[in-house]
Amino acid sequence: MKEKFLALIAAVSPADHSLSGAAQAHLDDLTKPQGSLGRLEEIALRFVQATASLSPVINRKKICCFAGDHGVAREGVSAFPSEVTPQMVYTMLSGGAAINVFARHVGADLAVVDMGVNHDFPDHPVLVKRKVAKGTGNIAAGPAMSENEAIGAILAGAALAAEAHDEGYHLLGTGEMGIANTTPAAALYSVLLGVPVDGITGRGTGIDDERLQHKKEVIKRAVGVNAGLCTTPLGTLAALGGYEIAGIAGFILGAAACRVPVVVDGFISSAGAVVAMKLCPVVADYLFFSHLSNEQGHRAVMQAIGARPILDLDLRLGEGTGAALAMQMIEASVKMYNEMATFSSASVSEKDGE
To answer: Which residue has the higher pLDDT, 344 or 133?
Structure first.
């Protein structure tokens, strides 16, 4: 299994920057003042580079929402009990969650992936069963999982991305569901990015001041207890992460290996992206960070990795909701690139020289 993990990382190549000149020339030739469509032009250029095609295509989109439970929920870090995780998965399977609404709105298919929920689900067309275990260990007392379990979750996520590529999807998105998962996400950021726990830890499901302070103390305890295991990105993921976070990291690695861009959702999905970037830095070429989460600390994370999210709507739900909405902006940028007339082909006068 370790050999497959190393092969996955080795399979990721940088985006094709040799196309940048031709793509930028095309963008500059579109019937508009150069740069006047702002970040949409930047998005289109990055999409061309990632897909290694001067004729980019987005015909099919898919969001995978990874679900898992967390032993650290027993520490009282969430406003909701762990039982809400499977309840929300059932809501997604019935089509009634926010991510279902937004996925339908943007025309994206949705898969709900059970990576580690403490519940046995019946078969369902939208459900993908990739359970590694029924929830992680309590990170405040020891590691979340073994390295082999982390690798298994990564490989499962990567396989889903490869399958999506084979099925003809051109743009993928991440989402997650897991009560208490802002706690392992914050712990991962603290270690992998060196961000202080007090600055990175937010209210998650809406906890009060007293419980927020307790949550910070739990995260500090988790980082301290597992310090000896956090010597590599993989070791840190295994010690402090979650099965859904590991699945997201693998999904990103697998998509990048297939040159399929990925839209990253909010605070927890970004933790999976940071893990993937630490394991294989060039995956950053394939990532579009969808939105700036209202969860405290996400801005610091984005600054630390040099990312500029597409949207800023004060979202903090997760599930892939921000990723779904940002897909529309990415699709609009690709349509602009492909469908606008150019000065070279249209009877439009260019700007006079000075």
So the answer is: 133
